[in-house]
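Prompt: I keep going back and forth on a fold encoding question. Comparing notes only helps if you start from a blank page. Show me how you would write down a chain together with its backbone fold. Please set it down just below, with no commentary around it:
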Amino acid sequence: MTRVIAIFDVGKTNKKRLLFDEQYQVVDEQTETFAEISDEDGDPCEDLDRLIGWLRASLAEVLANPAYSVKAVNVTTYGASFVHINGEGQPVTPLYNYLKPFPEALHRQFFDTYGGETVVSRKTASPILGMLNSGLQVYRLKYEQPDKFAQVAYSLHLPQFVSFLINKWPVSELTSVGCHTMLWDFDQQQYHHWLTDENVDGCLPQLVPSDSAIETFVNSHLIPVGVGLHDSSAALIPYLASFQEPFVLLSTGTWCVSMNPFNASPLTDEELQYDCLCFLSYQGKPVKASRLFAGYEHEWQTKRLAEHFRVSLDTYKSVAFEADLIHALRARHTVPTGEYEPDRLSSMKGSLFSSRNLDQFTTYAEAYHQLMLDIVAQQLLSTELVLAGSPVRQLFVDGGFGKNPVYMHLLAAAFPEIEVYAASVAQATSLGAALAIHPHWNKHPLPTNCISLKRFENVL
């Protein structure tokens, strides 16, 4: 029997169960996709009953599999989502979607009471994001559904709820509490006083370290079960475990998120305006992060290019980096000087390329290089927000753009004083959740080879 840790990785789209052996190699992976249902207002939300059923059946299946000996379990899920449970551990509301509109009247009431948007946002290191500020979900429940609120024994962030389904231990932990929730006062390093003032602090169970685990009988097996992690923090753990020198991780996907675990300076009002935030690592340390909607922008603009040049959507995948083309484009299409207007980064609605006339370009490759010049110009501004004043000498890029040679060469040129690497780690989020509770199940040393790197030099 192979000794394994089982990780449940719950994304918005895909729900995965992965098994890692003691060397943290994936030995089994299963994925499920659930259709969303609707809440009482007709807004889309997670099918909580199906999620619960899948988790229990999937765990029972692996425990009964004679090929594996499950020695630990942990969970990682998307954040900014609460499950409110009663004294019997049953949900009392749907799992509301963090994109559900937040009522304007309640928004004004909250911020008028607690000092205004600027003050609360800075103290809690949370841009104004509506339901994505998950603490406001508790506030909303209190005022909009007082009958439901009266039934709540605990409000559990989704990672802790999924963990609770296994270990029956209702807790809070810092990677969920500390990520743009408006719950955590980063000045005082404790819950913000609005929770006590509103008498909702009792809904949040005890706060435990993120690397906690509790011995639990699961289908007659006694195994340590972790308390769950927010996926953003979990994805950072393999890098924190592998590298001692200060670095920034640029995680690229629909959103490109620059994360600096070595910048502890408080957020400024200007940084918040430009969509910066702080979240807490699994070690309880602040991580400064900035977001850019660059993956979405790339998807939208490559569709535009494909239509204009009458080529397939994935033509960009075969575009090789051409330094001469970059030099020619820079001579023709300069990036505007001066500061970006205030809503350029905060709204993330588009890059400079959206206003380019495609008739200026003679080939697809030429236009695509210009698109990447414009995206990287914006990425430079976004990443610099978290770099300022910190001793970072390495920039790791994971996700889709890390496989894009045009993007990577331009990024290396944009940061000539920093070593820029494309980084690849299999199942980074799930691996991070496994590594977080390593001492609870694994006597082997932490692996040092779970991340592969490819350096990109500045050739411009």
